[in-house]
């Protein structure tokens, strides 16, 4: 029998427990696919004495994660703890020690993936992280391998299940954000503290990973323009429906002539767009490439079992490499393109204004748009008295020009409030 591939697991929460379960249930198949058995030699947890209904020897649990990583008999370190530290310290120790690493840590990769890639390249070992973006959906490997001979021009995706559930609920029921968030929390789709999801931090980290891989350029989460969904209202949803659209939190990465643009924000998209029908807590990513054309990847983007499935796929790959005495290429960042600021991004906008009900309002508002070079596509005025509303949809305009327009509109006496400003994508 070929020697086993010895695996250290860091973390045994929702995802880690599923990794353990799948390792046990699929033991024979995994051995056949790899050419050697996988042997779990340790599991780092916060509380080693806690009762766990898992098919492994309780003596494998340890609270000394760093000690486990440093063990000479460990071949592969699997990390599903998350966060920046101490995960970064653990993984760098593993890579410097010549161990392969499989991680689902989008926050760490989004902030400091370059350091991990450098350590992997110097040690001649593997760093795999399919599970860091879109759960079970095979996405990063197609970007890295299958499309490596093509030029990807744009990646547009729904990569956060919590926000997609909330927005889908608002769209289907007419509920406000607070009510939809409450429902998501009750069903287990939202964390007790949902900030990372609803404010777009989670999606921004994933957008950075996608852009880095698609455009061969190092992009960090700090480079990504980020807006959350907390300001999306039931009225915004109603306006979107009236336009034949829905609202989704999108990550959008675009290859420009001499730069890349990466942003995360809510946007109206036509109901005919492939991403519009992605409901509940599902994820989907729409990839556009010069030769391959349009591709869409869809599936469960979170949860213990789906994420564990992606982890095991990576574990099989790195284990095969170790047995063959080889490793995959590290990051491809040769393009080294700058990230263009959001102010330069061209986008269509949907602006809703609460205005005074009197003559000359439309002319005054139109004058402000013209002053800043923002072209108006459509205008709809409704309501009377205190209910007077002006809805404007623009042609594509630079973000900084639209921001200047909105700032001046807020200062007009005839504008009681700028009720909402939403981007319009997919048209």
Overview of the molecule:
This protein is of the alpha/beta class. The chain contains 14 helices and 17 strands. It has helices at residues 14-25, 27-34, 65-70, 87-96, 106-123, 140-146, 161-173, 177-186, 195-198, 201-215, 234-242, 304-324, 361-371, 399-410; strands at residues 5-10, 38-44, 61-62, 76-79, 100-103, 127-128, 152-158, 225-226, 245-255, 260-270, 282-289, 293-300, 346-355, 376-382, 389-394, 397-398, 415-424. Strands 7, 8, 9, 10, 11, 12, 13, 14, 15, 16 and 17 form an eleven-stranded mixed beta sheet that branches. Strands 3-2-1-4-5-6 form a six-stranded parallel beta sheet, sandwiched between helices. Helix 4 packs parallel to helix 5. The protein is elongated and about 85 Å long. The model has no long low-confidence stretch (mean pLDDT 93). Its cofactor is a metal cation. It catalyses: L-homoserine + NAD(+) = L-aspartate 4-semialdehyde + NADH + H(+); L-homoserine + NADP(+) = L-aspartate 4-semialdehyde + NADPH + H(+).
Gist of the model:
The chain is of the alpha/beta class and 427 residues long.
Record keyword descriptors for this entry.
amino-acid biosynthesis; 6-stranded parallel beta sheet; alpha/beta; sodium; 14 helices; 25% strand; methionine biosynthesis; 427 residues; elongated
Shape: elongated
The largest sheet is: 11 strands, mixed
Helix content percent band: 25-40%
Which regions are unreliable across 5 or more consecutive residues at pLDDT < 50? Answer: none
Structural class: alpha/beta
Strand residues, percent: 25-35%
Q: Averaging pLDDT over every residue, what do you get?
A: 93
Distance from N terminus to C terminus (CA atoms, Å) equals 58 Å
The radius of gyration computed from the alpha-carbon positions, rounded to a whole number of angstroms, is 24 Å
- Total helices: the number is 14
Number of strands: 17
Family: Belongs to the homoserine dehydrogenase family.
Organism: Dactylosporangium maewongense
Function: Catalyzes the conversion of L-aspartate-beta-semialdehyde (L-Asa) to L-homoserine (L-Hse), the third step in the biosynthesis of threonine and methionine from aspartate.
Catalytic activity: L-homoserine + NAD(+) = L-aspartate 4-semialdehyde + NADH + H(+); L-homoserine + NADP(+) = L-aspartate 4-semialdehyde + NADPH + H(+)
């Amino acid at each position: 029998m070929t020697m086993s591939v010895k695996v250290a697991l860091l973390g045994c929460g929702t995802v880690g427990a599923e990794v353990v379960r799948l390792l046990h249930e699929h033991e024979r198949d995994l051995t056949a696919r790899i050419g050697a058995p996988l042997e779990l030699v340790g599991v780092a947890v916060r509380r080693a004495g806690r009762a766990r209904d898992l098919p492994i020897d309780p003596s494998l649990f340890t609270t000394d994660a760093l000690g486990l990583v440093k063990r000479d008999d460990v071949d592969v370190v699997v990390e599903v703890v998350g966060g920046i530290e101490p995960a970064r310290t653990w993984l760098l120790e593993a890579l410097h020690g010549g161990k392969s690493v499989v991680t689902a840590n989008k926050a760490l990769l989004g902030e400091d993936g370059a350091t991990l890639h450098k350590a992997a390249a110097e040690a001649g070992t593997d760093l795999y992280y399919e599970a860091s973006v879109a759960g079970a959906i095979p996405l990063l490997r197609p970007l890295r391998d299958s499309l490596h001979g093509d030029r990807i021009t744009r990646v547009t995706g729904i990569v956060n299940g919590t926000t997609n559930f909330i927005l889908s609920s608002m769209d289907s029921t007419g509920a406000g954000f607070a009510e939809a968030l409450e429902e998501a929390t009750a069903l287990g789709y939202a964390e007790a503290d949902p900030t990372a999801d609803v404010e777009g931090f989670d999606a921004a980290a994933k957008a950075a990973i996608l852009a880095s891989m698609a455009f061969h350029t190092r992009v960090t989460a700090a480079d990504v323009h980020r807006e959350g969904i907390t300001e999306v209202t039931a009225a915004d949803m109603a306006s979107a429906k009236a336009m034949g659209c829905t609202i989704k939190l999108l990550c959008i990465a675009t290859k420009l002539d001499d730069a890349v643009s990466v942003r995360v924000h809510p946007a109206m998209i036509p109901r005919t767009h492939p991403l519009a029908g992605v409901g509940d807590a599902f994820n989907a990513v729409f990839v556009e490439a010069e030769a391959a054309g349009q591709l869409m990847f869809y599936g469960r983007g979170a949860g213990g079992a789906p994420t564990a499935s992606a982890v095991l796929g990576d574990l099989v790959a790195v284990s095969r490499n170790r047995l063959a005495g080889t490793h995959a290429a590290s990051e491809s960042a040769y393009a080294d393109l700058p990230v263009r600021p959001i102010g330069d991004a061209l986008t269509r906008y949907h602006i809703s204004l609460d205005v005074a009900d009197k003559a000359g309002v439309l002319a005054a508002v139109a004058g402000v748009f013209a002053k800043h070079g923002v072209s108006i596509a459509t205008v709809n005025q409704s309501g009377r008295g205190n209910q007077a509303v002006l809805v404007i949809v623009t042609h594509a305009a630079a973000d900084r020009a639209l921001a200047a327009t909105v700032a001046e509109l807020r200062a007009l006496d005839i504008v009681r409030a700028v009720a909402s400003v939403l981007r319009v994508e997919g048209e």
